Amino acid sequence: MINIAIDGPAGAGKSTLAREAAKALGFVYADTGALYRAVALYCHRNGVEPVGALDKIDIKLKLKDFAQRVSLNGEDVTEAIRSPEISAMSSRVSPLPEVRAFLLDLQRDLAKQNNVVMDGRDIGTVVLPNADVKIFLTASPEERAVRRFDELAAKGSSVTFDEVLNDLNKRDRDDSNRKEAPLRQASDASLLDTTGLTREQSLKRLLDIINKKK
Question: Rounded distance, CA 51 to CA 19, Å?
Answer without folding.
Answer: 30
